[in-house]
Write a structure and sequence with these properties.
Protein name: Decaprenyl diphosphate synthase subunit 1
Shape: elongated
Structural class: mainly alpha
Largest sheet: none
Order of helices and strands: HHHHHH
GO molecular function: metal ion binding; prenyltransferase activity
Cofactor: Mg(2+)
GO cellular component, one term: transferase complex
Number of strands: 0
Organism: Ursus americanus (American black bear)
Distance between the termini: 8 Å
Length: about 100
């Protein structure tokens, strides 16, 4: 979602796509627990993420939260600040980096 492929895995981080992929590939649990430190862990985890619907599920979840945020922000009285918050919510979903 806007970051180089595997960047978070190389840092030992389990992001949304990884956690959703783990539901489909439980063998990822061990890799997550050891923070993808063994040789081949990052590549194997990346393959599992690509084979799963983890990215799609993460995107859907982000969209749900952003739409809910916009709905709540829209209840505020009109102002440049309110408009900026709504715009920020939309940027979060469409950013490249």
């Amino acid at each position: 979602m806007g970051k180089p492929t595997s960047a978070d895995l190389k840092l030992g981080l389990a992001t949304g796509p990884v956690l959703f992929a783990c539901q489909q590939f439980p063998e990822m649990n061990a890799m997550i627990m050891r923070r993808f430190r063994l040789p081949g862990d990052v590549d194997r985890a990346r393959q599992y993420v690509l084979q799963s619907d983890g990215v799609q599920q993460t995107t859907y979840l982000a969209q749900r939260y952003c739409h809910e945020a916009v709905r709540e922000i829209s209840k505020l009285r009109p102002s440049p600040e309110r408009d900026a918050l709504i715009q920020l919510s939309e940027i979060v979903l469409t950013r490249d980096k």
